[in-house]
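DM from R.C. (forwarded with permission)

"hey, sorry to bug you on a friday — could you get me a structure for this? deadline for the figure draft is monday and I only need the backbone to look sensible"
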Amino acid sequence: MKILLLSLISFVIIVVGALGFIGNYFYNISINPVTERPFFDNNPDLDLAVPAMQVEEQVKQEGERSKIWIEDTPHENITLISHDGLKLRGYEYHQTEPSNRWVIVAHGYMGYGKQMALSSMKFYEQGYNVLLVDLRGHGESEGKYIGMGWHDRLDMVGWINRIVEQDAQSEVVLYGVSMGGATVMMTSGEDLPSNVKAIVEDCGYTSAYDEFSYQLKRLFNLPSFPIMTASNVVVNFRAGYDLKEASALDQVAKSKTPILFIHGDADTFVPYEMVHQLYDAAKVEKDLLIIKDAGHGGAHLAGAAYWNKVWDFTNKYMES
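My reply, with the result:
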């Protein structure tokens, strides 16, 4: 009996140790911002478009022009201290003539604010003051972990409040792509000031747990259980949040702000099916744009079809 008990205890210790090792491994390759991710190199799931998608020359030229615009246009480097004491970096592009229109632009996983050059230029040309942000753990913002949109949603509230404090008449749009899309959706469920008029999300995921479970199968052909369970325990311990709690699906269901959902039907990185779950969950005024043959983050390659939809939606809620 004693031998059996010792064997059982030893087995439990081995299993717990193995799960702890696995959980930490997957934490490091998913949530740790300084870890290299070679499996992302040449990943076909990150292709912006499938060959069938026609990309106009004008769209390509605008992309190149925006890279120059983002650096050459006068702007101010600003900081925000987050609710948990991190110094976050933002970049403000003000209109030459006074404007109450604002957009906060959120980038994707392992990106940084100024990568969002095209969307920033587009909003600026529509008369918006632009606030680009480096999400926590990205770019020049502090942070030892990736928030997957969850803690970032509170950072976004801080950025919103900063705008409202300096411009009480401001009308704010939130715009984000991929993890940035998830971030603005998670922000939508918070108690936001009435200054926030509309949200545009592009290819965001339903929850961090769902996305990592999908990628676990997609990249490694591994089942969600028990790996995601172990990883989630480690994320709770090391980053202070729960991957299931980081749910855009739950947050859009609480939103009081109109939302435009955008996705490419060829997206295999954040699976296309997620956008329909998110759209169905939202109880506010909403719209849906599906771009044929667009891959992950590639919907904007549709050019006018994409941006005209964005302007038609946002203009309905802007007063100035």
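R.C.: lifesaver. The mean pLDDT is 93.
me: no worries. The radius of gyration is 21 Å.
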